[in-house]
Amino acid sequence: EVHLVESGGGLVQPGGSLLLSCAASGFSFSENAMNWARQAPGKGLEGVSSINSGGDSAIYADSVRGRFTISRDNAKNMLYLQMNSLKPEDTAVYYCGTLDSRGQGTQVIVSS
Questions:
Q1: Smaller CB count within 10 Å for the chain: N or C?
Q2: Confidence of residue 80 (pLDDT cuts 50, 70, 90)
Q3: Where are the beta strands (DSSP E) in the chain?
């Protein structure tokens, strides 16, 4: 059974940084592409970033490119999202996922 647990969310001021982590288990993590998505209050799910199984290729939504960095540690079954220069519009619940599974999410609030 796929099990994904996000952590690292919280309240941060505009311009600040957060590192989100996702612990994966129950599947062959190193053989799967992974992604981060987010859902802002009152809005639908938005893809933020994806990374291939080897960790050497990633794509980003236009809204976060240049500010967010996705990475993974296949030895530890961990996925990360480094978020810098955070903006109020980045406020959302952030989810890590495979193509067909998603965790419970971690809340990020960007506010002064």
A1: N
A2: very high
A3: 3-7, 10-12, 18-25, 34-39, 45-51, 58-60, 68-73, 78-83, 92-97, 106-110
